[in-house]
Amino acid sequence: MNARDVMTAAVVSVGPDTPMREIAKVLCDNAISALPVLDAAGAPLGMVSEGDLIGRNETDREARRDWWLTLLAEGEELNADFLAGLRGPRHIARDVMRSPVVTIGEDTDIGDIARLLTSHRIKRVPVVRDGRVVGIVSRADLVRALASEEEAQPALHRDGGQFAEALAAIDQRFFNSRRPHHEQQPKTAPSVEPDDAKLTVADFRSLVAEHDHKQTEDRQAHDQAVAQQRRQHVADLTDHHIADAGWRSLMHSARQVAEQGGKEFMLLQFPSALCSDGSRAINSALPEWPATLRGESAELYLRWEHDLKSHGFNLGARVLDFPGGMPGDIGLFLMWGQ
Q1: Are 98 and 52 in contact (CB under 8 A)?
Q2: d(CA 276, CA 281)
Q3: pLDDT digits (tens, 9 = 90+) for 32-41
Q4: Fewest C-beta in 10 Å: which of 11, 78, 162, 233?
Q5: 295 and 213, same structural domain?
């Protein structure tokens, strides 16, 4: 069972400029505790929860009491002078959302989803297809899936479907191996060598043109193959999740680099297309670059933020190469040097 089977497809979301009071109303109206913040194309920018709206410290909570009191008043108007004394600065979704956001693909196994929620201490995760959010999987969805699996009785498939196909394939290979060799080999027409004595300059020019055309086709095929490999690499990294064992392995490698006098360690190399802005923020060293991370790079950032940041480790990203003058691969570096 995977994300596609358990996700909630009707995604309740807000845009990055949605005011906090409107976000609170959406949460209340839909009886949910958090929702994703999406850009105009439906790509995830962050997550906003009740905790983010209320505030994580006393100052934030004091500044935001007014509209929570309004919500709790169940339609009754509160005294305007009273609210005026509590009203703090206006905030929007981008000011309070948590980013980068952890995402999964539609084919992510529910066991992997459960481990992801546990390792990142989150309650829900957006499901993305081609960079756009198409669903949400929450802890409640996983619990319901577990309950349905417990109730379902294992069914025995005796129609011979896949098994029969496998046997048929084996039989076909066996049949081919028993056929006489001359029956197995396709018949080809004998090649006809050109009469070099009758060639003209037009023939030679035609050969050159054919060669050039073939080279052009080969280059195009190569470029298409490289582009497809990069797209697949982005897709793989988008839905690749760093497990505890993988994180420990990275930390062990970083320690070995430090033992040899190194001051930084590259946690991940990934295509610039994995960033929501194509690495513009990283290339320009803008402070908001972490919010553009996606997939595995986002998860590594969150791991650093939770496990290492308070211990003095820094995390940085930079463009590693510029093929054709454009940003190519990005390196995500753990740093401890002075």
Answers
A1: yes
A2: 10
A3: 889 999 999 9
A4: 162
A5: no
Give the domain range for residue 225: 201-239
Q: Which of 338, 325, 3, 316 is nearest to 141 (CA)?
A: 3
Q: What is the DSSP string of 204-222?
A: HHHHHHHHHHHHHHHHHHH
Both 227 and 254 in one domain: the answer is no
Q: Are 94 and 23 in contact (CB under 8 A)?
A: no
Q: Which residues are CB-contacts of 288 (< 8 A; sequence separation ≥ 6)?
A: 281
Burial class (CB in 10 A: 0-12, 13-18, 19+), 86: middle
Provide the pLDDT for residue 240. Answer: 64
Asked whether residue 180 is assigned to any structural domain, the reply reads no
Contact by Cβ (8 Å): 275, 293:
yes
Return d(Cα 11, Cα 5) in angstroms, integer. Answer: 15
Tell me the helices (H) and strands (E) count for the chain, helix number first.
Answer: 15, 8
Whole-structure pTM value:
0.63
Structure-model confidence comparison of residues 131 and 76, the more confident one: 131
DSSP for 251-280 reads: HHHHHHHHHTT-SEEEEEEEEGGGSTTTTH
* Domain identity same for 297 and 221: no
Residue 173 covered by a domain:
no
- Tokens 């913040």 appear where? 37
Residue with tokens 């410290």: 57
Distance, in Å, from the CA atom of 199 to the CA atom of 215, rounded to the nearest integer, reads: 23
- DSSP-assigned letters across all residues of 99-138: -SPP-EETT-BHHHHHHHHHHHT-SEEEEEETTEEEEEEE
Give the DSSP H/E element, type plus range, for residue 316: strand 314-319
Q: Are residues 229 and 307 in the same domain?
A: no
